TrEMBL record:
Biological classification of the source: Bacteria, Bacillati, Actinomycetota, Actinomycetes, Micrococcales
Protein name: Cytidine deaminase
Hydrolase among keywords: yes
Organism: Myceligenerans salitolerans
Annotated GO MF terms: cytidine deaminase activity
Pfam families cross-referenced by the UniProt entry: dCMP_cyt_deam_1 (PF00383)
Enzyme Commission no: 3.5.4.5
Similarity comment: family membership: Belongs to the cytidine and deoxycytidylate deaminase family.
First-level EC class: hydrolase
Bias type Basic and acidic residues, positions: 157-167
Residues covered by region (Disordered): 140-167
Entries under InterPro entries matching the protein: CMP_dCMP_dom, Cyt/Deoxycyt_deaminase, Cytidine_deaminase-like
Length: 167
């Protein structure tokens, strides 16, 4: 355990990559046969891992980053400071486009991302990203209120849907 918060943590990439490879055994990938394991370091020193979880309805498949980010939230939240993911051969692979957005949300521009081209920052692998600050600029900061806060758009959709019920 480290008392040093956030950016002062120095990621042990060897250990992180090993954790990602270990997470591969939890992958559920009967359709593609392409298992992925992911590992990340949180700003309080927590190690998070994830694996992909496929679905017979292919589009509903969850990438390894999905379970990793869920693990982050379910174990107390915080910020990701270093991330890696691995294929079944142990090669470092890149997060897909969708998951780069997930990582941006929970790590921001400074998140260190292990890539086949070396360790890069999140803003190098997702330039000009859309993020919480874009929502805050328009709705006066309500996006910063955190989980559990119903977005105005969701409420509007709810009442609109109710109004369209057949009578
Ligand atoms: Zn993905």
């Amino acid at each position: 355990m480290s008392g040093a918060p956030g950016r002062s943590l120095r990621p042990d990439w060897t250990a992180l990559r090993a954790a990602a490879r270990d997470a591969l055994r939890f992958a559920y990938a009967p359709y593609s046969g392409y298992a992925v394991g992911a590992a990340a370091l949180a700003d309080d020193g927590r190690l998070l891992t994830g694996a992909n979880v496929e679905n017979s309805a292919y589009g509903v498949t969850l990438c390894a980053e999905c379970s990793l980010v869920s693990a982050l939230a379910m174990s107390g939240g915080g910020r990701l400071v270093a991330f890696t993911c691995s294929d079944a051969d142990g090669r470092v692979i890149m997060a897909c486009g969708r998951c780069r957005q997930l990582l941006w949300e929970h790590g921001g521009a400074d998140l260190l991302v292990d890539t086949p081209r070396g360790v890069l920052t999140m803003d190098q692998v997702l330039p000009q990203a859309f993020g919480p600050e874009d929502l805050a600029r328009v709705n006066g900061g309500r996006a910063a209120a955190g989980p559990g806060t119903a977005a105005p758009a969701a409420r509007d959709l709810g009442s609109e849907a109710h109004g369209e019920e057949p009578s």
